[in-house]
């Protein structure tokens, strides 16, 4: 007779299997799961790991859902929108004050160049904002698919492996979990 509890595909045991999302959410208790849901632990002593355990914290971080950050586009957006555009606008204002007091061709050329620089910085900031918005919009379906897969993963503490309950052939080391979710 087969057991309704989820078994690790590597060791075949059920006592160290825990849902990945439960580990990541901070549920440090070892709990047994079936395909129909969680099995409440009996009165026998179940090993618990405290939230301050040095062994559980890295595991929780390692098994957490990998969030993609679009750092380059954000860094460019901050650079152009928050730093270069205001700086070039201030330079344009200073050159405008100078050109209005002394309308020589050199001052007017400097004013024109700083004004063009300000417009280019505004344009670059808008392009970076549009790129970041587009990246997030295109990444959303992929993110949702990966999150749905991640919510079905289980972890075996004994073998340090992550697996999909419905398909025992889909198994990976906890450090290479991202290969299972494709994100």
Approximate strand percentage? 5-15%
Count the domains: 2
Oligomerization: single chain
Number of E strands: 6
Query: DSSP helix count?
Result: 5
Q: Identify the overall geometry.
A: rod-shaped
Question: What low-confidence regions span 5 or more consecutive residues with pLDDT below 50?
Answer: 27-32, 40-56
Strand order of the largest sheet: 1-4-5-6
H and E order: EHEEHHHEEEH
CA distance, first residue to last residue: 38 Å
Task: Describe this protein's structure.
Keywords: Membrane, Transmembrane, Transmembrane helix. The chain crosses the membrane at residues 74-96, 111-131. With 183 residues, the protein is an alpha+beta fold. The chain has two domains: 17-64 and 154-181, no CATH class; 71-147. Helices cover 51% and strands 13% of the residues. It has helices at residues 20-24, 56-63, 71-101, 105-150, 178-181; strands at residues 17-19, 32-34, 37-39, 153-156, 161-164, 167-173. The strands form two sheets. It has a four-stranded antiparallel sheet with strand order 1-4-5-6. A two-stranded antiparallel ribbon has the order 2-3. Mean pLDDT is 79; it is low at 27-32 and 40-56.
């Amino acid at each position: 007779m087969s057991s309704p509890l989820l078994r690790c595909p590597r060791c075949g045991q059920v006592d160290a299997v825990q849902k990945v999302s439960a580990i990541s959410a901070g549920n440090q208790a070892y709990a047994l799961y079936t395909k129909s849901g969680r099995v409440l632990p009996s009165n026998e002593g179940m090993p618990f790991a405290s939230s301050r355990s040095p062994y559980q914290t890295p595991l929780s971080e390692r098994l957490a859902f990998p969030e993609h950050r679009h750092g380059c586009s954000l860094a460019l957006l901050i650079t152009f929108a928050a730093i270069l555009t205001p700086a070039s606008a201030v330079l344009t204002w200073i050159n405008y004050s100078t050109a209005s007091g002394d309308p020589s061709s050199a001052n007017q050329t400097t004013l024109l160049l700083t004004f063009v620089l300000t417009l280019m910085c505004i344009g670059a900031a808008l392009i970076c904002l549009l790129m970041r918005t587009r990246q997030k919009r295109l990444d959303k379906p992929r993110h949702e698919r990966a999150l749905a897969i991640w919510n079905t993963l289980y972890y075996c503490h004994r073998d340090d492996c992550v697996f999909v309950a419905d398909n025992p052939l889909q198994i990976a080391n906890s450090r290479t979990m991202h290969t299972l979710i494709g994100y």
